[in-house]
Amino acid sequence: MKKEHEQGMFGYEAPKLRQLADKVAAAGYYAVVPDFFHGDPLTSINKLGDWRKNHAPEQAVEFAKPVIHALKEKGITKIGAAGFCWGAKVVVELAKDAEIQFAALLHPSFVTLDDIKGVKVPTGILGAEIDKMSPPELVKEFEAALVANEVNSFVKIYPGVSHGWTIRYKDEDAAEVKCAQEAHQDLVEWFGKCL
After folding, report:
1. Backbone conformation region of residue 150, classed left if phi is above 0, alpha if psi is from -120 to 50, else beta
2. What's the predicted TM-score (pTM) here?
3. Angstrom distances, CA of residue 84 to CA of 23, 44, 128, 163
């Protein structure tokens, strides 16, 4: 039986991602969690290379655009997006073209400094102290690029946690739970500041 906190990208089916979407909705937002993986989540980080061939973030950007359009048709005028791990790259691409009005990147993966330099909308970055995919030094470079481009930003490094902690924390680890809850609140507050 797989443990939820093991490495992998679970997307739409991740229970803690859905719980976080419920928290965002409870704060008064219209929350949508599309299935960007089309029922094929990454369940073992060892297969990442093969999996990414069929799940490029750029493909998900094209999948996201009709979702954004549908939200606009519902009368929603300001759209924010939060991307977790792999999803952060998708959100950055949407933020470059201003398809969305504000963004949040949580423990981002596959995002480069050049990507961040192209961001045009307010962007929050929630990073982990222990993260090989986006170490604190890189997150600080992201912050500096946003500031240099005069993009409103919120950047925070959460101490003692590792990549994925916001949606893959262990329920029995009180410190991880507390840090995840803090990040969840910071995300909701960031969205509020952007409206």
Report:
1. left
2. 0.91
3. 16, 17, 12, 10
Segment (H or E) for 134: none
pLDDT tens, 18-48? 999 999 999 999 999 998 888 888 877 667 7
CB atoms < 10 A from the CB of 13, how many?
Answer: 12
Buried b (16+ CB within 10 A) or exposed e, 132-148: ebbbbebbeebbebbee
CA dihedral angle for residue 83, residue 42, residue 62, residue 153, rounded to 10 degrees = 10
| Residue 4's pLDDT band (cuts 50, 70, 90) | very low
Dist CA 187 CA 46 (whole Å): 30
Angle between helices 57-73 and 86-96 (to 10 degrees): 60
H or E element in which residue 152 lies: none
**Using one digit for the tens of pLDDT, what is the confidence trace for 145-178?**
999 999 999 999 999 999 999 999 999 999 999 9
Backbone dihedral region for residue 117 (phi beyond 0: left; psi -120 to 50: alpha; all else: beta): alpha
